[in-house]
């Protein structure tokens, strides 16, 4: 009975592996490619990897059969829910290698390739999510191999021009002790949800280091857009709203604010720290499903003046704003010139007190 259950888990995991580009079963919502335009953070479209399907299957089976049954159940829950379920870390030896074709891969990297990104080549392409036990640890003996505790890094096609220094003071970390003495609950940002030109719901104040913003997420806690009451009857708005799904994860980390796209469709981001703030128009960056981007850089923010960008300069906000649109882009590469024409979008307004 024990062997039967273990074998069943292994078979279900193999059936749940990530589709290779070109497979008939591939999810068109997560497919990438086409004209990149102004979308600077894009994944590689190269065909995966060395090693035949039979070799990969044999190697995967041999690895999974060495993993404890409880760990297999955790991995299966993470993979079948596509990261929607809250699953614990899957701690396995990080230095164990596996050979596929002519290439040798660390065990964690191989599991990430099999269950999320078949085109993954190197661990430098990955970013560990802050919810993971292995986050911030350097070369631990046991490494989390849960593929949904990882994200792919968005890489810009070219670095932004050098930043000029200005005597401005953006996003200083709040004095947490002083706030507690005054009885105040510190928040590092507030989030507003918009449908076209209408704000829907209240401003959502964020105190925790990370926030899930979603429409429909199993076991989800955070800012649920699906619970907001909207009077917008536009078919496009309703279609995009339904595609938000697992949404995004917003996290404040030591080097800045990161956005992780948990949905099955691209998101689009505009932020002054991603571009040259002296330019007349900031670029809109496309972030594919499963990818993370540093949407706001603390170090760069300390040296910025208010950007010249028309949309940003029209906002009577204190602090700084990052704009995020679900599914539909805007700007010079799109028919929509302003984010207020996008069906469903967010403002993330930082607290610079």
From TrEMBL:
Family: Belongs to the dwarfin/SMAD family.
Keywords assigned by UniProt, alphabetized: Cytoplasm, Metal-binding, Nucleus, Transcription, Transcription regulation, Zinc
Start and end residues of each MH2 domain: 188-353
Keyword Nuclease appears in the UniProt entry: no
Domain MH1: 8-159
UniProt entry tagged with the keyword Iron: no
UniProt xrefs under CDD domains: MH1_SMAD_7, MH2_SMAD_7
Coiled coil: none
UniProt subcellular location: Cytoplasm; Nucleus
Gene Ontology MF terms: I-SMAD binding; metal ion binding; transcription regulator inhibitor activity
A single Gene Ontology CC term: heteromeric SMAD protein complex
Protein name from the UniProt record: Mothers against decapentaplegic homolog
Organism of provenance: Cyprinus carpio carpio
UniProt xrefs under Pfam families: MH1, MH2
GO BP annotations, alphabetical order: anatomical structure morphogenesis; cell differentiation; regulation of transcription by RNA polymerase II; SMAD protein signal transduction
